[in-house]
Amino acid sequence: MRVLHLCVNGDRLEVAAPPHWTLLEVLRYKLGLTGSKQGCDKGDCGACTVLVDGKPVLACLTLAALSEGREITTIEGLMPAHRQAGGEGADPVQEAFDRCGALQCGFCQPGMMLSARALLNDNPTPSPAEIKHALSGNLCRCTGYTQIVQAVELCVAESTSKKPRSPAWAPGVNPWSRAEPASGGQD
Amino acid sequence: MKSFELVMPKTLDEAIAALPESGQPTERVRVLAGGQDLLGEMKESLVTPERVVNLKTVPGIEGHEPTAEGGLRIGALTRLIDLERDEGLQGSHPMLVEAAAAVATPQIRSMGTLGGNLCQRPRCFYYRNPHSPCLKKGGTECFSYGGLNKYNAILGGGPSYIVHPSDVAPALVSYDAVFTLLGPAGEREVPADSFFTLPSSGEVTRENVLAANEIVTAVTLPAGREAWKATYLKVRERDSFDFALSAVALALKMNGDLIEQARLTLGGVAPKPWRCTSTEELLVGRKIDEETCRLAGEDALRMAEPLEQNGYKVPMTQGLIRRALQALAS
Ligand SMILES: Cc1cc2nc3c(=O)[nH]c(=O)nc-3n(C[C@H](O)[C@H](O)[C@H](O)COP(=O)(O)OP(=O)(O)OC[C@H]3O[C@@H](n4cnc5c(N)ncnc54)[C@H](O)[C@@H]3O)c2cc1C
Ligand code: FES
Ligand code: FES
User: Fold this and answer.
1) Cα–Cα distance measured from residue B14 to residue B53, given in angstroms and rounded to the nearest whole number
2) CATH number for the domain harbouring residue A102
3) Residue with CA nearest ligand 1 atom 14
4) In angstroms, what is the span from residue A35 Cα to ligand 3's centroid?
5) Minimal CA separation from B108 to chain A, in Å
6) Domain assignment of residue A26, yes or no
7) Lining residues, ligand 1, CB within 6 Å
8) How confident is the model over B288-319, as pLDDT tens digits?
9) What's the rounded Cα separation, in Å, for the pair B56 and B53?
10) Domain holding A20: CATH number?
C-alpha cells in the first residue's frame, strides 16, 4: 500500500492503494466514483476517460501513483464545477446530450462528455470535423454517434447564440431549440 | 497487473542506475514514459517487471530546441499531443506533425511520448495474446506465418512477420533523424534507419538496437529539412483510430519541377520502418507525373512477398505512394 494525495473534482484526498493500481481502479474501487467506466481496460474504448489538468486521458492506462499533484476531473465533477463557476443546472455538455438523446445504454457517456468538455474548453467553436476528431477515442457500442456529434454542435451553437442546425431526421422543425419547442412527438 | 517497485529518478543518471547492469536479467526492469503501451503489456502479463522506472520525473528531456548546426533536437519525453499542436513544427516539419497526429486517439496522444512511440512493442495478434508462446516472446514459431496474417508483414518478414507499429518512426527515418541513446558508458548517436532492426538481422525478440540499460533521450532532425516538401499518409481499417495497414512517409527536395533528393519510408508493411533506397534513387531527376508514380510504386514493392491474407497491402501501398507524390506535386 501507498498513501496517495490526489486532487479529484477539486477535493484533496488521501487514499491508500497498491502501487500498481491504475487511476481508474482507485477512482472506482477506493473512491466510489463509478462514473468512470471500466470498458476494455486497455486503451481501446475511451469509457474510462477523465480529465487530468484539463486534458482527456485514459484512467485505465494511467498509474494512480503518477496522478499525484494533478487536477483530476471525473464526470461526477462536471456539474459541481459548472455551478461553482456561476452556471445553473448541469454542465451545458450534459444538458445537450440529454436534449439530443445522445445516449442509449449510457456506458460511453461519461467518457464522451469529458472528451467533449475538454474540446470546448480548448476550442469553443469547433467544426463538425473537429468534433469528430476530438471524440475519435471514445467508442459508442450503441453507435449513437450522429446524436453525440449533434449534441456538441448544439453546445457550440448555444454558446455563440446561434440557432442550432436542425438535424437531418427532423427537417423543418428544430427539436433542440429551447425558444421554440418542437411540436408533437419529440421528447 | 502484477505489483512492482516504482522508481522515480530525479536525474538521467539515476534513471540509468536503476536499469539492469550488463549481464543481469533484462526482463525484471522496464522504463515507463506515458505508459500507453507498457501498461497494456503488463496487464496482459506479456512483461512482468519487478521494477518500473518512471522517466516522467526526469527534467530536461521534454520539448524541443534548435541545435548549433541548425537542426532541431526533440526530447524523448515530449508528448505526441505537443508535437501535433506545435504551430512552428506544423510549418517546418509537417510530416512529423502528421505522423504524430495519426497515432491512436486524443487521450493516448495526451499521455504518449515520442520515445515511447518509437520503442513500443508489436501489435501482432499472436504476440499480444498471452496464451500464444510465439517467436517474439521467446517461443519457436511465428504463428502468423501459417495463421492469421491479414495485418502482418509483406516486406522484410521472417522468421517473425510482425509489422512495426509506430507511425512516427517512418517519418523520422524519412527526415534522416538521429536518435540519442544514453547508457552507463555515456551517450551514443544512432541514425533512425539503423536504430530499428529486422527479425532476421537483430534479435528476434526485439525491434531495435537499444540495450536493456539504455534509454532514448532525444531525436535530432538535421538542418535544412524545412525546405523539403514532406507528407505522412496512413490507411487504417477504421477511420477513428487504428494502427496502419500501410503508411508512407515521403520527403522530397525539389528543384523547380524536378525531384533533387527523395526519402521514402513505408510503415505498417514490414518489421521495421521500411526505407526504399532504390526508389529514392529512381525518383531523383524526375518530374512528378503519372509514369513517376507508377515506377515508384512498382519499385518500392518489387521485393514484396505477401502472406496468404495480406496481398491487398501491395496495391494499397502503391496507391499511397502515388497519393503522396501527387500531394507533394501541388
Ligand atoms: C488503443 C491503442 C491504439 C494505438 N494506436 C497507435 C497508432 O495508431 N499508432 C502508433 O504509432 N501507436 C499507437 N499506439 C501505441 C502507443 O501506446 C503510443 O503510440 C504511445 O506513443 C506510446 O508512448 P508511451 O510514452 O505511452 O510509451 P510507454 O508505454 O511508456 O513505453 C512504450 C515502450 O517503450 C519503452 N520506452 C518508453 N520510453 C522510452 C525511452 N525514452 N527510452 C527507451 N525505452 C522507452 C517502454 O519501456 C515500453 O517498452 C496505440 C496504443 C493503444 C493502446
Ligand atoms: S477502459 Fe480505458 S480505454 Fe477502455
Ligand atoms: S450509449 Fe451505449 S455505448 Fe454509447
Assistant:
1) 10
2) 1.10.150.120
3) B104
4) 14
5) 7
6) yes
7) A 43-44; B 30-38, 40, 55, 76, 80, 103-104, 108, 111-113, 115-117, 119-121, 165-167, 210, 215-216, 241, 243
8) 999 999 999 999 999 999 999 999 999 999 99
9) 9
10) 3.10.20.30
Judged by phi (left if over 0) then psi (alpha if -120 to 50, else beta), residue B3 lies in beta
Rounded to a whole number of angstroms, the distance from the CA of A19 to the nearest CA of chain B is: 7
pLDDT tier at A179, thresholds 50, 70, 90: low
**Residue at A186 is within a domain:** no
User: What integer pLDDT is reported at residue A180 of this predicted model?
Assistant: 53
> Which of the residues A1, A3, A4, A20 would you substitute to probe the B interface, choosing the one with the greatest number of B C-beta atoms within 10 Å?
A20
B223-226 LR contacts (CB < 8 Å, sep 24+): B223/B67, B223/B69, B223/B70, B223/B71, B224/B70, B225/B92, B225/B93, B225/B175, B225/B176, B225/B251, B226/B91, B226/B92, B226/B93
Nearest CA in chain B to A140: B240
Give the nearest partner residue to A42 out of B43, B54, B105, using CB atoms.
B43
A169 inside domain: no
- Stated as kind and residue range, the H or E segment containing A83 is helix A75-84
| Contact at CB, B39 and A41, closer than 8 angstroms | no
Locate the ligand 2 atom nearest the alpha carbon of residue A38 and give its number: 1
pLDDT in tens, A145-164: 999 999 999 999 989 988 77
Q: Exposed e or buried b for every residue in B218-229, given b needs 16+ CB within 10 A?
A: bbbbeeebeebb
Nearest Cα neighbor of B18 from B63, B61, B62, B49 is B49
Q: Which domain holds residue A35?
A: 2-76
Residue A167 within any structural domain of the chain: no
How many distinct structural domains can be found in chain A? 2
b/e code B19-57 from CB counts within 10 Å (16+ = b): beeeeeeeeebbbbbbbbbbbbbbbeebbebeebbbbbe
Give the one of B2, B6, B107 whose C-beta lies nearest to A65's C-beta: B6
Q: What is the pTM of this model?
A: 0.96
- Among the three residues A76, A98, A125, which one is the final residue of a domain in this structure? A76
Extract the C-alpha cell encoding B37: 503501451
Distance A38 CA to ligand 1 centre (A): 21
Tell me which of B160 and B203 has the higher pLDDT: B160
Q: Are residues A70 and A10 in the same domain?
A: yes
